[in-house]
User: Fold this.
Amino acid sequence: MTNRQQGGLSVIEQLASYVATESFDKFPEATVRAARRAILDTLGVTLAGSVEPTAARVRAMIAHRRTADEATLIGTALRGAVEDAALANGTASHALDYDDLNQSLSGHPSVPILAAALALAERRRASGAALLAAFVAGVEVEAKLGRALNPAHYEIGWHATATLGVFGAAAAAAKLLGLSAERTAHALAIAASMASGIKANFGTDCKPLHVGHAARCGIEAALLAETGFTGNPRALEHGDGFGATHGAGSRPAWDLTTTGLGAPHDLVDPGIGVKRFPACASTHQALDATLALAAEHAIEPKAVEAVECGVSYMAPHQLIYDRAETGLQGKFSMPYCVAVALLDRTVGLAQFADARVQRADVQALMPKVRMFVHPEQTTRESLPTRFSEVAITLNDGRRLSRRVRHAKGQPQNPLTDEELTTKFYDCAARVLPRERADSVLAAVQALDAAPDVSVFARLLSGSAR
Assistant:
């Protein structure tokens, strides 16, 4: 059996060649800036997520084997083996569903990559530049795979953040380990057999676990490859490979993966979206519209007769709860998110506490909110111009509507550096004193000059238990 496609290297071999030759010294300033912003945001949401029950449950599960002093369990005073740190930190980073987004991936790019890369970089006492190179390479691999496989991959139920993130995590780990292109290819092939995560588990502890699992598996795939462990470098395009099993019966356009690797980096184009609200991204356009209408027209919740939210055909695959009963379910419920926005005039961490979801006022308003697929957004062709349209009918007969295409925080409507920093401080305050948060911010801003990432990683210890 040959590892070659007609005309050259397999898809995995081309990805591996890119990873092995990628270098921080080649990065344009736009890539470095985008990576720093993504890392800062991811560290903030990881610190905030570390106090969530989901994260605590994972730490409890690994407590009996937490003997190695290799890497920081972010937000806590605990340390553990590199694989366990990746699992715990990856889970914490996605526990609030407050982490960043990428269009190519159809998911959350930074969390599986940073959870793997930071833990391994800490153990190896790698430089900040090495961490940045691994992070950029990992995001590039997962995102470019997303270009070939999505939207079909996501539509049929796979959680691409995990199923494609595991390849990115393996790439980042291979980069930090200094693996050759050949062994990096084996790491990526091994990762193909580790990919998992289904959307049916959205709104439960399993969704954030998907990220921790992908980060841990990515490290393990690279460590196995380092020992000489092998996988099939044709594991993506093989007739019984990842594309066949995870591509919804379609033939992935692998040239979209291999063309233009690193030129530009996906971190820059199409870029990274930073979340303004700690809820599923498919709610964000509607939330921007709802909050704007409420402010402009001084809408009283008791005056609301009905709310209609027209969305992309993809949204119902994510927003699977018509009536939320827990904070986790609320993140994937358009009726809850819109109802609580009308009541509280804000949608932050406090709005997804179980007690807030279960209060009588929001439970009474939720049934008045209806989500439907907008007639202009029923096909894949509508994805590049997707929007949400909210129409609020009041008991005085008025019908107020607004359409939002680019939610605040998306690459086309980004958070400013000041707004991103404010979000970071709000998140970090859950477990870090302000002085420590200041130190973390300064360290991220100067990360490329750091000689030893382990010093930086220890700044992330906090008060979560």
Notes: Residues 117 and 173 are 6 Å apart (CA to CA). Strands lie at 71-72, 79-80, 304-311, 369-373, 388-394, 399-404. The first strand starts at residue 71 and ends at 72. The chain has two domains: 11-276+440-458, 281-404.
